[in-house]
Amino acid sequence: MSDITTLSNQPLGPSPRPRVSRRGSAAALMVLLTGTGCGAGAVGKVVRPTQPTAGEALGTVDVECRPEATDAQPLVVDLPSSGRVDLEVAMKEGVAVVAYDCKTMRLLTGCKATGSYDFAGVSRKEEVIKLEDQGEIAANLPFNGVKISGGLERGAALDLALVLIGKHSTMVDAVRRFELAGRCDGATHFVRSASVGAFALDVGTRGEARLVADVFGAHAGAASTSRRKSVNHDGDLAECRSATPDDATPPAQCRSAIRLELVPIAATGPEVDATPVPATMSLSGLAPLADPCPEGFVLTAGKCAPRASAQVFLCGPDDRQTCEDQCAKGSTGSCYNLGHLLTGVKDLCKESKADNCLAVGVVPDGDPKYAQYVEGAKAYEKACEGDVAAACYYVGRHHEDGVLGKSKDDVRADQQFERACMQGHAMSCLHLTQKYEGKDRNDPRAVKYAQRACDLGLKPGCFSAVAKYLKGEGTPKRPDAAEAILTRTCDAGEGKRCAELGMLKLEGHLGPKDVAKALAVFSRGCELKYASSCVMQAQAHLGQWGVPLDREKAREAFQKGCAAEGEKSKACVDLAKRLAEP
């Protein structure tokens, strides 16, 4: 695309280069849950429930999965309490693995992938979503919703109150099948993140508007035991309302998993490909928004509803006309997709050879497409005002660079980056880190935002935070924090960080010298095909750093990191000579 000037088109990969709030709207809620925003429909006239027919009471609804769907963001509030406990335990023990289609999900408790999760708070979101028929219930609560609602009277609805205060995220970007450990038959996806908070599910009436507190209060105020049992809930509303985005952990009664981000397990094996699986724009959180709903449903008013009845809904990321129409009607997620289409970002990222694209499409004033690009910038503004966090990143970039009709204004730019960052958009946090440290490496704000980007699962933020903690830039030196981050990134598949962690442990920069820990992380890095980790592992087994001589282990590490990969570095050549000695 010769008519696009790329202001930023840099790969976001493993080397150190480099979602809403506030108050309750369906658009704001879905930003955190799925990265989208849609306008809500008007509240209609209250319809009093009547008794259902026998067939209606059975609630059998067939939901078809979209054949092209890969990543998924299912609600899990309809899991039984035992299932939510199992999920929480699984996420404490490693990266959780599931067997999933859009209708069922089975947690594989005996299957794990290496890695861990960290918590980052976000601006609190509250919303009530009304599911008005069995089709909507089946599409939005796919695991147990139809069973829960099987006895609904005609005219009744399910009211789902959600309060979200943060996310548990892993830095694991991709999992290949050979990396799974345990009983993994049927595994299809791993859990990349879980949005957490509290929820309450209660029987309501179609067209009746209720507040979050009303739905949560239905359980506490229920006059009978049977009524209390009919209200499915988890968590405490008051505790959730005490949470802040800066909290290191969620409140004890506000940490239930609400929605998961599921990523498909890659089919590649070690003999085919040992490199990370490309993730296009998704890692930076700047990808266009795809419809997460089953076949025949669209995202509207915070829920999946039948396409035929939806007035305002999320457009497809390649459908410009529908995006224009829906943006004009108030679908902020459609405005975001429209911004991508009008400014050429989506196509530019398709052309990029990088695993991740951070492009900002711009043409100069006077270019034939300038007016179109300005309209794209306005679409991003609408999306940002509707709390699509990634859109605020683009608005910030436009003000930062003074392009597409925006005056150059760092204050307004940083306000947008801050807004997006506190809504959980990791790339905006990293951008603030880079801006602040570019002016003053000892600015404590750079540490704050680097750590936040890291906790949201963005590896470059972790690398920046490690450097700050080791050097004491903007923070007292904290080797313990540096070690924790390096351990997490090594576990997440960054062989280079395993090598760095091993050397730091050997040289005593993270506390007392720890040869056993160093050897363990060298071995992990070597298994990840990072040659330097293999070389250092081999050197250790040849007697360096006080490790007992074991030529067989040294030769094995050499084969993995040097000979097997055809590595010609000086370190590998020197190691080969030492192994050839009698």
From TrEMBL:
Pfam family, one: Sel1
Record's keyword annotation contains Repeat: yes
Superkingdom assignment: Bacteria
Keywords: Repeat
Coiled coil: none
UniProt record similarity statement: Belongs to the hcp beta-lactamase family.
Protein name: Tetratricopeptide repeat protein
